[in-house]
């Protein structure tokens, strides 16, 4: 009763219409806080990977073509370095702190203990890829960082709630146009054109 009144008062004071959201953040365990924080790193990492890989997007007149934001120049590699310092290194530190607190057992716990060290290895390899100005290697290492993060969250989800995540990637031809698009009919859009051509 006291807890309900406290949460309701806090919600009214903060102007929050859904008091249950306050309950979730105020009264959840330290381990759940770790999971929430670690899962929040997914969005910037997926954003970085999308910038490092070609994506089919429409231009201003609706013609689709492959575009890639980061191509491996020194300036582009500086952007990757910024993501490394701002997101990937703090993520590895959070994972290291979280592992002893998470109440998993058996094989899940054993694998969880390995993942922060594996993430540290990805950091070293990404640093090398940045030094080499190799966009292919950078994309591969960022992809491995994401895979390790997703494995960490998958193992944690056996005991804790992992927040839902949807990538902000561009919509595919099929998602945008349905039966009016090429993918719906098993074909693909010709680069730089709206014509449909057979899949290779």
Number of DSSP strand runs: 4
Q: What is the 3D form?
A: globular
By DSSP (H or I, 4+ residues per run), the number of helices equals: 8
* Architecture per CATH nomenclature, i.e. the level-2 architecture of the largest domain: Up-down Bundle
What is the third-level CATH name, the topology of the largest domain? Answer: Four Helix Bundle (Hemerythrin (Met), subunit A)
Computed over alpha carbons, the radius of gyration is 21 Å
Fraction of residues in H or I helices: 55-70%
- Report strand order across the widest sheet: 1-2
Taking the alpha carbons of the first and last residues, their distance comes to 65 Å
Q: How many structural domains are formed by the residues?
A: 2
Oligomer state of the chains in this structure: single chain
Query: Can you identify the CATH class of the largest domain?
Result: Mainly Alpha
Largest sheet, strands/sense/barrel: 2 strands, antiparallel
| pLDDT averaged over residues | 83
Order of helices and strands: HHHHEEHHHHEE
- The assigned structural class equals mainly alpha
**Poorly predicted ranges (pLDDT <50, ≥5 residues)?**
1-24
The fraction of residues assigned to DSSP E strands is 5-15%
Polypeptide structure, described:
- By secondary structure, this protein is mainly α.
- The protein folds into 2 domains: 29-169, Four Helix Bundle (Hemerythrin (Met), subunit A), CATH 1.20.120; 171-200, no CATH class.
- It has 8 helices and 4 strands; from the N terminus they run ααααββααααββ.
- Strand 1 and strand 2 form a beta hairpin.
- The longest helix has 28 residues, at 74-101.
């Amino acid at each position: 009763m006291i807890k309900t009144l406290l949460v309701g008062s806090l919600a009214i004071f903060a102007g929050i219409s859904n008091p249950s959201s306050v309950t979730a953040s105020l009264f959840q365990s330290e381990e759940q806080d770790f999971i929430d924080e670690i899962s929040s790193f997914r969005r910037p990492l997926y954003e970085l990977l999308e910038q490092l890989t070609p994506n089919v997007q429409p231009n201003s007149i609706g013609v689709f073509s492959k575009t890639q934001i980061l191509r491996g120049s020194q300036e582009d590699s500086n952007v990757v370095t910024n993501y490394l310092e701002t997101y990937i290194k703090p993520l590895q530190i959070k994972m290291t702190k979280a592992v002893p607190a998470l109440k998993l057992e058996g094989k899940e716990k054993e694998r969880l203990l390995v993942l922060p060290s594996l993430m540290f290895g990805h950091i070293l390899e990404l640093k090398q890829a940045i030094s080499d100005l190799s966009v292919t290697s950078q994309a591969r290492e960022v992809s491995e960082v994401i895979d390790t993060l997703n494995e960490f969250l998958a193992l944690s989800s056996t005991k804790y709630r992992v927040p839902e995540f949807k990538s902000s990637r561009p919509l595919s031809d099929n998602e945008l146009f349905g039966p009016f698009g090429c993918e719906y009919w098993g074909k693909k859009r010709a680069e730089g054109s709206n014509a449909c051509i057979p899949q290779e």
